[in-house]
Each structure stands twice: as structure tokens, then as C-alpha cells.
Amino acid sequence: MPDHQQTAVRAELARAKVNLALHITGQRNDGYHLLESLVAFPQIGDRIALEPSEKLELDIDGPFARELDLAGDNNLVLRAVRGFAERAKIDVPSVKITLTKRLPVASGIGGGSSDAATTLRLLEDVTGVYLSDADLHELAASLGADVPVCLTPEPQVMRGIGEDLAAAPLLPACGIVLVNPKVTLETPDVFGALDKKNNPQLAKMPDAFDDIAALIAYLTNSRNDLQTPAMSACGAIGEVLNFLQGDSRILFSRMSGSGATCFGLCAPTEMRAIETDLRTAHPDWWIASGPLS
Fold first, then answer.
1. Which three-class secondary structure state does DSSP give residue 275?
2. Fewest Cβ atoms nearer than 10 Å: which of 12, 151, 206, 286?
3. Residue 27: helix, strand or coil by DSSP?
4. How far from each other are the two terminal CA atoms of the chain, in whole angstroms?
């Protein structure tokens, strides 16, 4: 790796992936579920930083550091580095990766997938080796179904098993509050509790959501098909949603992904006050807020 490309720390926010709507539309013969999902990436996330080192190393800090698996190939960030080197046909880069884990683990907001995708983007800049779009997408998909969508942290529509991606309509200025009752839910368990797997697809979307009202009107006629099975496994999700729905400043609320993180949409000017009030009322919950996009 050229020395001039290793002169500074490169860092990026690994944004949470929020499923504003998630429809399960079928199941393939190999067991994978088919879906359609409107996905947003709020300005809330983990932090990935790369800097020069004598060898590949991973340092994890932050409030959820202890919940991660540091064991070699099982760690998604290290798998991303080794997979990148193999695809790029280069030696494994000698970099120190610092992951500041701010997002709860196994919480339905794609934290691990976003960490891996962000690492791949930073590796291209650090090494000066840029994979083709097809190679990068294929590598991301090999790491997990949610990793490809996290490569481009902008509003998108996911289809298939997550590999079919398209740009979503422009989103309005909007605040979002994320709340997790600090309960871990395993995605296979939630899918396993899903009764109906052939649900209607998302309604046609406009070219842009002109304001919050337009976005909420669309979301009101959509669903998260995993919310009911997740609530049956974790009663705390219902408690979170009831609390969000009881706050008049929150204009729409729903669970993201397979849970247990829920979100509330609000005016951008309200999100910080809502976060503060939630923290006061429920100091045992994980709570964060930021712009929706």
C-alpha cells in the first residue's frame, strides 16, 4: 500500500438502517424470504475509523462494545477487510480499525451491516483500489443480506432478498427518534414466527415526498409485517410503541426491521426535546435522535 495513502485517520459515520416500511411478499424454495422495503439512513450510527498500523487490528469501544464478537473471522468488519483484499487481489491491508459501537446489537437497524459496508468504502479510499460496482455488491452480499443496501446510505427501496436495490423518492426534512428497550431479538426467530409470508407489495411511490404529511400518509398505508411476530416474542416493543404513540409531537411510529428498535417521526425542531423527555421517563432504554436523511 503506498505510504502517502496512510498519512491520516479516515473516519465515517456508519448510519443506522431504518425500515420505514417492510413488506414480506413471499419465500423462496431455499428458505429465504422475499421483501419490499423503504429504507432510510438517519444521521445516527456507529463510527468507523481507519489509520495506519503494522498489522490488521480491530479495536472496539463505545457503549455496546462488549456485546460484539471479537473472534477472528466471525467478526463482520474483519470479514469485510479480508474479503476486500481477496477480491482486490492485494495483501490484507495493515490498518487499525476503530469501531465505536453506539448502536445496539441485533436490534433491527442494521448496525453490523452498516459497519461492514462503511469499512468497505473506507478501504477503497485507504488502499486506492476501487472494485467494480458488481464486485463490491457481490462482496457485500456475501457478508449479509443487508450489507449491499448500506453501501449507499441514502433512501432506497429493497426488493428480492435485499439484493435488488433502487433509489427511493426524496424524503422531506424530518426528525427521527430511535428507541430500543435494550432487548436483543434474533432475526431468524422473528421470521420463524411469521404466519403469512405472501403479503401485498408496497404501493406505488411518488417521485418525492414533498413534506412530512405526504410521507406519513404513504407510511400509514404500508406495514412492517415483522412487527406482530416480534411483539409476540418481546412485549417491551408494545410498551415502546405505546409510549411513542402517546406523545403528540410524534407524528408516526413503527418498529424497524425485525426489532426491537422502534422509530418515531417528528418535526426536526422537536426531535432533541423528545429524546430528552424519553431519557428522563425511561433511563433504561437506548434512545437516539437525528435528521431522517
1. helix
2. 206
3. strand
4. 34
Domain boundaries, the chain: 3-166, 169-291
- pTM for the full model? 0.94
290 forms bridges with which residues in the sheet?
A: 176
Annotated binding site for ATP: 104-114
Taking the CA atoms of 50, 117, 15 and 67 in sequence, report the sign of the dihedral they define.
negative
> Which tens digit of pLDDT belongs to each residue from 144-191?
999 999 999 999 999 999 999 999 999 999 999 999 999 988 888 899
Fold of the domain built from segment(s) 169-291: Alpha-Beta Plaits (3.30.70)
- Provide the CATH number for the domain formed by 3-166 in this structure: 3.30.230.10
pLDDT tens, position by position, 81-106? 999 999 999 999 999 999 999 999 99
Say if CB 42 and CB 81 are below 8 A apart.
Answer: no
pLDDT for the residue 73 = 59
Tell me if residue 115 falls in helix, strand or coil: helix
C-alpha triplet 61, 64, 68: angle, nearest 5°: 85
Annotated binding site: 104-114
